[in-house]
Amino acid sequence: MTAGVTALPTGLVARTAGLIVGAVVFVWAGMMLGPSPALFGFGYLAAVWGAAAVIDLQTHHLPDILTLGAYPVFLILMLPSAAIEANWNGLGLAALLGLATALALFIIAFINPAGFGLGDVKLGLSTGAALGWLGVMEAVAGLLAAFVLMAVFGAVALAVKRLGRKSDVAFGPFMIAGVLVAPWLAQLMS
């Protein structure tokens, strides 16, 4: 949420959690894409998102080195897949929907800067691009799912008194979770 944070989580639990998130994202990508050169791009995002989720949960900050760099690197890594699979439309949608997701999140952050950070906006570049590769409905479903998952978590945490009404909740992990459920949610929406 704040630019320039460089502190990384320490300890075995933090590293293990990051690896688990990354592994889950990579397995998800394999299920969605099958054997495809696109797995290079999604594998890169799995590593980035695993680290980002842990850092955001621990510090409520998403470092620029993870969020800003992920979007162009992902698109570059998707070039071979676009060429080999003749999926230039997928690459174009990935680029466009990454920007559209970040713009939507920026508008929300502008309206409510106390409740939403620019790190989330920058993470939206790569989450929107990844889902854009899969399709427009997936990108819409992923963003919607992130907000629904966070709302459900917030309601449950309030009910069991784990959070107060003014507590901060890291949104990045919910964005990543939204990516994971987006393909199935998109099928339900269509």
TrEMBL record:
Pfam families: Peptidase_A24. Belongs to the peptidase A24 family. The chain crosses the membrane at residues 12-31, 38-59, 65-84, 91-111, 131-157, 169-186. Residues 45-154 form the Prepilin type IV endopeptidase peptidase domain. One of its GO terms (molecular function) is methyltransferase activity. It comes from the Bacteria. This is Leader peptidase (Prepilin peptidase) / N-methyltransferase. One of its GO terms (cellular component) is plasma membrane. Keywords: Membrane, Methyltransferase, Transferase, Transmembrane, Transmembrane helix. InterPro entries: Prepilin_IV_endopep_pep, Prepilin_peptidase/N-MTase. GO terms for biological process: methylation; signal peptide processing.
